[in-house]
Amino acid sequence: xxxxxxxxxxxxxxxxxxxxLYAVFKLWVSVISPMFLGRSTKQAADDINKPETTSKRQxxxxxxxxxxxxxxxxxxxxx
Length: 79
Known about the structure:
Layout: H1 5-8, H2 10-37, H3 42-49, H4 56-67
Pfam family, one: TMEM208_SND2
Region (Disordered): 42-79
GO biological process, one term: vacuolar protein processing
């Protein structure tokens, strides 16, 4: 049986190992680590620090309510 390793060279086998290692890394970061270690993603961490924003309509209604405009009815706060 001939030795086929010389056909590709060492660089091919290093490159051949990079692809599965990268796949394992991405699987660890996106699935395994958050599931077992309870680590959150960057997006979830950003949502915690993000202040609540109000739409233009909500802001306008709030200002009308503060002035006592009869078109605005005060509604109970939602839980």
